[in-house]
Amino acid sequence: MHMPAHWARLLGLMVCLLAGATMAPAGEVLDDPLLEQAGRAWWATNGVQLERGSGSVCASVPGGTADPWDAIIGFNGVPIRRDTHYRFSFTARSAEGGPVRAYVQDSVAPWTPVGQLLRTLAPAGAGDGPLIATTRFTAAAALADAQVVFQLGGKAEPWEICFSRVSLVTGEKAPDDASWRPSALRVNQLGYLPKGPKRASLVSKADAALDWQLIDAEQRVVAFGRTRPFGFDLASELPLHIIDFSEFADSGPSYRLRVGDAESPPFAVDRRLYDRLAQDAAAYFYKLRSGIAIDGALAGAAYERPAGHLGRGANRGDTDVPCLASETALKVYGAAWSCAYRLDVSGGWYDAGDFGKYVVNGGIAAAQLMATYERALNHGPKTSHGPKTSAAVADAELAIPEAGNAIPDLLDEARWELDFLLAMQVPEGEPLAGMAHHKVHGERWTLGPILPHRDRERRVLHRPSTAATLNLAAAAAQGARLFARYDSAYAARLLGAAQRAYRAAEAHPELLAPLTDGSFGGGDYADDDVSDEFYWAAAELYLTTGGAEWHAKLKASPHWQGPVFSSDGFNWRDVAGLARLQLATVPSALPKAELADIRGSVIDAADRLLATQAGEGFGLMYHPDSGIYGWGSNHSVLQNMAVVAAAYDLSGERRYLQAVRESMDYILGRNALGLSYVTGHGSTYARRQHALMFAHATDPAYPPPPDGALAGGPNSQPADDIAEAKLGGCAPQACYVDDPGSFSTNEIAINWNAALVFVAQFLADTADQPG
């Protein structure tokens, strides 16, 4: 029995190139590329009829299949060598025409593909002959017994396809999967603010300063000067010069820098530079919503889809979800656990590339969206008449269903996740009542490309955890404060849930999510220290209620006066830094001396980050103490920028504002790779991120990652086949590949995008502030 190829985790997807092939050259791996031998053991899944002829293999595919993997043919026994270059091709014809997905993949779980071809076969007579499809790839893994499979399902009508050639040739030249080469001049490809710093980095071994010119759209020289030799940049392992053209303040849509024969990508100088970026980054969340049909009129036609996991389809979704079976819990947690109840946990956002929903990641993501609103409310721009003008506090700014309901759009979007967090709370009267389930996802990994409403994996609730419970407490307490002016009943519900959660966490302070091997259908989100979550939850409860009880719990925390800002930035596992920022910037009744200490710690952290920035050749606020760029390093850069943004709000000192502006250059192209990490923003940007449903790079039938999606970024310890094969010996800042199989460098995630929303909106709100 051959398992369908849809179980394959798409870790090793390569670039598809079209080319012709008419004969079997030396180096052919397959023993019968012209299909002349009747002995090869082709197989087919149920319902597919195979017919062998001289020089052909034909498959009759039933109609009414929903997914490509509902109808598969293939054969086994293909040896694949790691780091070897191959050309994979086939020739086929069909009277009716239909979809074809061809894979070279492992023949055992998880059926990892090393090469693929995705084509639509036109009906005979509609084209100029048979389809000849070719791709080249480099195998990221050695497979002693690989298989070639053709997925043929997904068509309403029955159809037939005949193959006359299937070839796999080795000894090919390594494919060049880069369609571009970065300029030696690295700039913020989106552009620069008229009142902000304007710096670029030049890759050059020259010891002496070089002449630079700034060219406008008409090729006129509008500014010029000399570079400043920087020397060897440790993070990128590149020799650099710095160009500073900050004195140039004329707005314009297209400028370029020039040094000798090198010319930079185009960029703008514009005060409205970050408005669309902030909007796109926030609009990303609607497209990630679970439990609601996505309206193409709002999200764009490419992103229209039925509701995912809403109690319909193969797995019945998230409307009636049981707990993990006790025997499975024993494997995951080392102890038997289950529950007698079932929960409706529909709604919320899909976490990242997969369809899991995780309370610890959803909690910080919702919190940072709300913090974006709250920052604009308390520190944002005002007109001369007083009302706030930031888009972060506006209604009908985002294309979401709730626009126009007299509630700011960012709060509407956050509410979609808050409602999910509330649903994850264990009901009263049950064991562990008040705790929050750590996560919900399939019993096995969902494999794609696939849209969420087609997911067939049965969903299960995982054991409650102290960390998840405190995430719920913190986010709900914050939401109670912010929704009070718009929906008092909802605010009261949030506050009640937050207080119940905190009490439950106190009663179960060591119910920790374990680190497993990742084989149970979703990410672990393991955390063995929840003291920072207790601190964050107490902070939000204090800021909302002003209660002496919460003040006392804050002061009893080891994080009250301890260091909370690391070089890696705060994140879902380490939330103490976020709590400190909230205490420093949200109005409260904290005693003046305590508030001064809290704010002083933020200023001190910002000063350290400015010192770090001064030593970086690409102007970013990130240099981990270990020297290793971590998973989601772009997120770390942004969270460090959030710390410095808070220092600006607290002090009004322009150096902090200018530092945030310059650090954003790194995210948008002034980096080792000359690549913007935000889809749709810049001239060369990440566009092939790892995601089950934004899988256009894998299958053109799916939408691409939406504009405003942040790629995880360089990871010095890559953990996927693609990155491991391509990034050996990489400099920390160059350990990134824009490939859909590279989940360890190129995934997208809600918490990463929430940080992008915060920083982009800060930059939009402060665009007119002088430098």
From TrEMBL:
Keywords per UniProt: Carbohydrate metabolism, Glycosidase, Hydrolase, Polysaccharide degradation, Signal
Domain Glycoside hydrolase family stretches: 274-759
Instruction: Give this protein's Gene Ontology molecular function annotations.
Output: hydrolase activity
Keyword Acetylation (UniProt)? no
Q: Which InterPro entries match?
A: Cellulase_Ig-like, Glyco_hydro_9, Glyco_hydro_9_Asp/Glu_AS
As for family, the record states: Belongs to the glycosyl hydrolase 9 (cellulase E) family.
Q: What is this protein called?
A: Glycoside hydrolase family 9 protein
